């Protein structure tokens, strides 16, 4: 039985009203899309600018090892996409999308600003047979950084071997050989600045929970039910995301290298504040969109929500601390042993997803009609496959960034070189170039009745992300004497991944607004981002499999790191192809459950 609101029951946000500016369009779409496009562009400018720096910041400034750095990165991005589950619900029931977006923008901007206070660079050291040695970092004649163990008056260059042992070289000759397991690297870090960094990441996670699902929900409000412009509108909106990330992923890493990490993070904070200003000072253009429910007491409840949200920041900080101190599962522990060894954040994510998805389906079975339940079931199946896609795609900020730093020749035609952080701009650049084409393609195919169904688009995306990794694996066979591949192999991966992304992400956002029961569309948008959250955590775990030994943020053997990346990329590619084909086979029953939604 479907419950209907009474005078005493909470009012539901209206997302089906007729667009009051239906005659005023922007590229054939409601004119409000332009402001939301720009708002999201600047918000993503801040987020992706910060994200381009984060893994390198953790490995080069704080000098965490690969496992710790990719674990923190995966945990951060997981929380970034977990919080929308709550933020979407709170906006639906209390805040309204517009106020939630503004609050999230302020909190995120403060988080980026706090990241500017990173303190002094960590000091590396090495422990050999339980004895601690100072490690110095110097540049050789070629201008490359080299790590040395300081043993009295001698400086011995550190060189890792294929078998896991380490040679200490004196004038190019091995003076001492350290067997595998007897050489450990570490770094002395200022505990205060580590705490500041984790608090900043916690604030960004909380703020994003209020911003991310609700700006997308506001875009969905621009279109009436059945409006065929919705998919292309979300694709245009998605292009704004990547337009912002394109410039930030060029500028923020450049500032970080040229002037210091703080300058890169400060630019991200400025971009975020511009995003807030566009919503705060909208000149009435967004009146009637994203408004809070009209019922007594809502205003007081909003301030309580803001206060509680800020109190969540210390909780997230504790989750990060727990994540940093978690141990790897013992060999042969099996699946249950792996789950038991997960830090609290991992258990929270898996628990939320494994319990939340069935709970929502049970609710939709009880509260919705048969058609609504089947549409929700189709959405949930696609959400599960969405986890797989983003697990692989989100290697961009972790293992692929480290691959760019270590095993990629970053020279562009021999004219100039870019930084490892700047390689992430390839994805944004290709999205900006491909998004208009894909928008036109979907519209043209729809007019002819040939547009692929949403499940087919998802299956193509999975196979596409596998193809991108296989291209890079192919390129690894042509690595130079320094075990580095040409930058164009990495660019080719991002080109394929960008095309795959356009088959799933903007289509997925649109799919949620079309398949969800109307009164929980904000919550379902949160579930969509929850699936990405789980994927982000998995992405961090996969990146840890590609971890290699480092000293002071630098690998000790580039041949070993190249092989580690190739092995991981090959394995995940095979898995993605198998699952992509499975989804293509499931597209027929899913299409039936979707009841004509395209």
TrEMBL record:
Keywords: Membrane, Peptide transport, Protein transport, Transmembrane, Transmembrane helix, Transport
One GO process term, biological-process aspect: oligopeptide transport
A Gene Ontology cellular-component term: membrane
InterPro entries assigned: Dipep/tripep_permease (IPR005279), MFS_trans_sf (IPR036259), POT_fam (IPR000109), PTR2_symporter_CS (IPR018456)
Gene3D superfamilies the record matches: MFS general substrate transporter like domains
Chain ranges passing through the membrane: 45-64, 70-91, 103-122, 191-211, 232-256, 262-282, 303-323, 335-363, 375-393, 425-446, 458-479, 485-509, 521-545, 565-588
Keyword Protein transport assigned: yes
Keyword Membrane: yes
PROSITE patterns recorded: PTR2_1, PTR2_2
Topology versus the membrane: Multi-pass membrane protein
Compartment(s) where it occurs, according to its Swiss-Prot or TrEMBL record: Membrane
MF annotations from Gene Ontology: peptide transmembrane transporter activity
Domain of life where this protein originates: Bacteria
Family affiliation: Belongs to the major facilitator superfamily. Proton-dependent oligopeptide transporter (POT/PTR) (TC 2.A.17) family.
Protein name per UniProt: POT family proton-dependent oligopeptide transporter
Origin species: Sphingomonas kyeonggiensis
